[in-house]
Amino acid sequence: MKQLIWWEWKLLWKQKLIYIMLVAILALLWISKTYFSLSIEELNAFEEIQNPITEKDVQEAREILVTEKFELDSKVNVYYRIDEAQTLMDKQYTVINQLKARPQTSAVEKEIKMREQVNTMYVEMTGYPIFLSEFLSGEGLIAIGILLLVGLYNLYARDHQTGMVQYTLTSKFGRSKLVQAKLFVALFYTLVIYIGTVIFSVIFNVYRAGGHVNYWMYITEGFNSPIQFHHSLSMSPYTFTLFEFLLIQLLFLLLGSICFSMICLSISSVTKNSFISFLFSMSIFFLPFLIVNLFNLLAERGWIAKLFIYTIPYIMQTKHLFEAFHYMQIGNIVILAPFIALALLIIIMISTIVFLKIYNKKWRYI
Amino acid sequence: MNELHLKSIYKNYKTKQVLNNISMTFTPGVYSFLGANGSGKTTLMRIILNLIKPSKGAVYWNGQPIELLGESYRDAIGYVPQHVPFYPNMKVYDFLMYIGTLKGIASHVLKEKVEYWLKQVNLYDDRYQKIKNLSGGMKQRVGIAQAMLNEPQLLILDEPTAGLDPKERIRFRSLIANLSVNRIILYTTHIASDLEGLTDYVCILNNGCLDQLDEPEIVLKKIAKQVWEIDILPEELNYIEEQYKVGAIEKYGGRIRVRLYHHKQPLPQAVMKEPTLEDLYLYYFSEGQST
After folding, report:
1. Residues on chain B touching A158 (C-beta within 8 angstroms)
2. Alpha-carbon gap, residue A247 to A253, rounded angstroms
3. Residues in chain A within 8 Å Cβ distance of B50
4. Chain B closest CA to A351's CA: distance in Å?
5. DSSP string, A107-127
6. Whole-structure pTM over 0.90, yes or no?
7. Residue range B151-159: mean pLDDT, rounded
8. Which residue did the predictor score with more confidence, A334 or B168?
9. B76 to chain A: which residues are within 8 Å by CB?
10. Chains A and B: how many Cβ contacts under 8 Å?
11. Å from A164 to nearest chain B CA?
12. Could you tell me if A269 and A169 are in contact, meaning their C-beta atoms sit under 8 angstroms apart?
């Protein structure tokens, strides 16, 4: 079995397309890189904040902002952030009041309860964790998608394309252990791509932070801030810190990557044609993005948009699951979007693995 | 003693019937399947290999359906496909090591086996060559080596000599002859001359039906007294081809020697000949007038 895994691993890495795409992704990231723009003085100003902030701090900040004397003040971003903290809090209260005016269902009650727990009166300089989170759900996600796609679309299809399937299906391990070996290799490849991307994201964003100022020294800042400071999550009813959210995001990114790789493998196994396998696998990953952006579905926030947040790439982005009170109700039980997404990923993972095993053992013919 | 049994095999592709009620039993020996292109030889081999499913019927290995046997059946078979497939850029040695791994051969014996078979098929010196750079004959020998790694009790060769030059075909034939002891070898071909002195049984597949299955001498007896040779002038060839089923044509001097098949003496100067397997093939599958 070890030998078989080793061979499959070697064959996977012999695909030139992986290296071509890797170089292309790195080149694009390098060309399009941007730096954080804060001065050292501004960064130091954040250090002086006493958390949690009080109403007095808010009042003071707002007065300074109104008097327009702030233009020369290095603390301007701090004042804005304090003002933002109060604004975010106010928005939560507004939503709570609106919810209280509605008929009280178990979902509404749950949302009120969750929003009442939100406290945004904690101000830190949040640059790095947010940039990291955004990078992971943007460039990082796309890089993972592309590298998984080019690495795995051909794992079975190449056997059909080259005719090697005639050996695999007639050899002792061809319908049993080979499936396990390919599954293992796909999982391990996914882990390598995932860990590589996460490490790269952490380092690349530190580099971006150090581009203009010594901001990289502040990269440990902001992880304790509430997720409402993440601009995509300003109306989130969840009470996570940015650190907790990053951990959740990494979990969804990992599980989504595994799901996507299992789907690629299943498609590759069924289609028998490399090009069709590539096309179908690519559609699974990129079609939801295309449809959502083409019809601007997320801005409309209709039920179709709510469906799309449960597609694999949007689950991997994570932020859409937490941006609002997305849920599903079964009887009186309210199931929150992250749990639905988690269940979906687990179901997809298990069903594709079971499918691959049964299909290759019983139904796979040339 | 191993036994392979085919029970009422049918295979249809949409409306086309490719195999029609094939039933036969194989015990150790060389079985040659003769048939024109499209006669169903490859389809039958693929059904035996469980690469495709029959529309009806079943294949049994030592009394057990092959679908149920799974690994133990696959462990007993070796297969040389028509055009030896390989991964681009794979070297001969790596290819055999990979196939050996797929066959479940333990790593501590695999290396020895690979080297042994590389020597047997005379490819040891070319073991680090990429397969894509080998000649057709060498590729076929790689095919044989991979099939033999697990020392199969059932060896299936699907048109293994197609595209080989005469020297390679002779080498290939002697290799098969050496392997034929105590195993069932199923050999499909439309080059009947390859089978002379090699095959124990001849199976003739015609339009998906099994026309003949017997020892070569017995099958050949059925066309005895129907094989004729005649010397003619070149301008008479068209007439002969229109009137009779014609086999080999050989030029010599200003004349042509034609082998033809007819149930009675076609022309007074025709001489009766002993039938060969090539005659048998041409008798069944060549275009022309019926006998």
Report:
1. 87
2. 10
3. 169-170
4. 23
5. HHHHHHHHHHH---------H
6. no
7. 90
8. A334
9. none
10. 76
11. 6
12. no
Which residue carries 């947040």 as its tokens? Answer: A309
Dump the DSSP string for A134-179. Answer: HHIIIIIHHHHHHHHHHHHTTTTHHHHHHSTHHHHTTSTTTTTHHH
Q: Residues 6 or more apart from A131 whose CB is under 8 A from it?
A: A36, A205, A208, A209
Chain A environment of B81 (Cβ under 8 Å) = 163, 166-167
User: Is the backbone peptide bond immediately before A52 cis, with ω within 30 degrees of 0?
Assistant: yes
3-state secondary structure (DSSP) of residue A68: coil
Both tokens of residue A150?
């080019």
Residue B58: which residues within 8 A CB-CB, separation 6 or more? B7, B9, B65, B66, B67
Residue B162 vs residues A163, A170, A185, B166, B206: alpha-carbon distances, Å: 17, 22, 37, 11, 19
Instruction: Encode pLDDT of A327-340 as tens digits.
Output: 988 888 999 999 99
Coil, strand, or helix at residue A260?
A: helix
Paired with B271 in beta bridges are B229
Instruction: Pick from B72, B101, B109 the residue to mutate for testing the A interface (most A CBs within 10 Å).
Output: B101
Using CA atoms, how far apart are residues A19 and A6, in angstroms rounded to an integer? 19
Helix (H, G, I), strand (E, B) or coil at A322: helix
Contact A171 B70 (CB under 8 A): no
Whether ipTM tops 0.90, in short, is: no
Contact between A175 and B74 using a beta-carbon 8 Å cutoff = yes
Q: Among partner residues B53, B79, B107, which is closest to A170 by beta-carbon distance?
A: B79
Give CA–CA dist A78/A62, Å, rounded. Answer: 11
Instruction: Classify A105 as helix, strand or coil.
Output: coil
CA dihedral B200, B202, B203, B207 (to 10 degrees): 160
Cα B48 to chain center, whole Å? Answer: 14
